[in-house]
Amino acid sequence: MDYNFKSLYSEIGGQETIDKLVNAFYPRVYADPVLAPLFQGDMEEIKRKQRMFLPQFLGGPALYSQEFGPPAMRARHLPFEVTPTRAQHWLKCMKEAFQEIGLDQNPAGTALYERLTQVAGIMVNTPDRDSK
After folding, report:
1. Does 3 score more than 90 pLDDT?
2. Tens of pLDDT along 20-44?
3. Does 129 reside within a domain?
4. Distance of CA 50 to the CA centre of its chain
5. Structural domain contains residue 18
6. Residue 113 maps to which CATH number?
7. Domains in the chain: how many in total?
8. Could you tell me which of 27, 17, 32 has the C-alpha nearest to residue 88?
């Protein structure tokens, strides 16, 4: 068996790539009229938390847990109406950020985007208002 495990964190380029992704992603989120109502807080603080969460999510250092405890992201997002439409807008912003920084050209980036697609689905906690 090959035990030479490499984390997705290191495969995408570590903290440097995460910083680029977060910086490309959040201006899109704040500019998106569907998502903006959910992101009323200080963008720099939200970016700081994401720069801490993503390494842990990808098998890197557990920066988020060291400061905030277990991520429990679904529970932390329950106060916000995360609809299927909002999840799709979030993924669109993420895809555009991946493209901007070239992460979409990296096989590990593809794997990361697939994981984020799963997360987006898990975060949905409210139906779209037009759903019947």
Report:
1. no
2. 999 999 999 999 999 999 998 899 9
3. no
4. 7
5. yes
6. 1.10.490.10
7. 1
8. 32
